[in-house]
Design brief:
Elements lengths: L2 H15 L10 E6 L4 H4 L13 H14 L4 E6 L3 H14 L3 E3 L5 H11 L4 E6 L4 H7 L14 E6 L4 E6 L3
Parallel strand pairs: 1-4, 2-3, 2-4
Antiparallel strand pairs: 1-5, 5-6
Length: about 170
């Protein structure tokens, strides 16, 4: 079975489980860490406060846009940093959605916004290796860790049940 078919089947299975019952509004949250930064591959950019994505990061962001284009996403969130916004932008553009900026250090505000404004929606969130685990935990998911050199995780969280699926993808 090809990787694309396996991934498509997994996403469809998760989505089919997440249809809201008549009495409950359920939401599905796709969460990723931003794609590869340019400063990781270019020593001359080391120490830059807000680096753009590398070419590998741009390819990864484009891959995400293709993978999630038909997932039913209604809102997209990214932090104030360029790398998270550049990771989310291809999908936002493809779907014609505004990119909502949220402070990286305020997971509580993000989760409150998701619960109050997007309770019945499927949403996409782009964070950082040190914020994604807290977001997942705040949505009722398990504890996770993300290594500093990991950019290939796609977390799918169902807050109503506290379940999470962790997938890996490559551009």
């Amino acid at each position: 079975m090809s990787r694309k078919l396996f991934f498509a089947g997994t996403v469809l299975a998760v989505l089919s489980l997440c249809r809201p019952p008549a009495l409950f509004a359920q939401k599905l949250v796709f969460i990723v860490r931003h794609a590869e930064r340019a400063d990781a591959a270019a020593p001359q950019m080391q120490g830059q406060a807000d680096p753009p994505l590398s070419s590998a990061g741009e390819a990864r962001a484009a891959k995400l846009a293709g993978m999630l284009a038909d997932a039913g996403i209604k809102a997209i969130f990214a932090t104030e940093y360029r790398r998270t916004q550049d990771t989310a932008r291809p999908l936002a553009t493809r779907l014609g959605l505004n990119l909502e900026r949220v402070p990286a250090r305020d997971t509580k505000a993000l989760v409150t916004k998701l619960q109050s404004e997007h309770a019945g929606d499927i949403v996409f969130v782009v964070g950082h290796s040190n914020t994604v685990p807290g977001i997942i935990k705040s949505l009722g998911g398990p504890e996770v860790t993300i290594a500093d050199d990991e950019y290939d995780n796609l977390f799918i969280v169902v807050p109503a049940t506290g379940t999470m699926t962790r997938l890996r993808f490559t551009p």
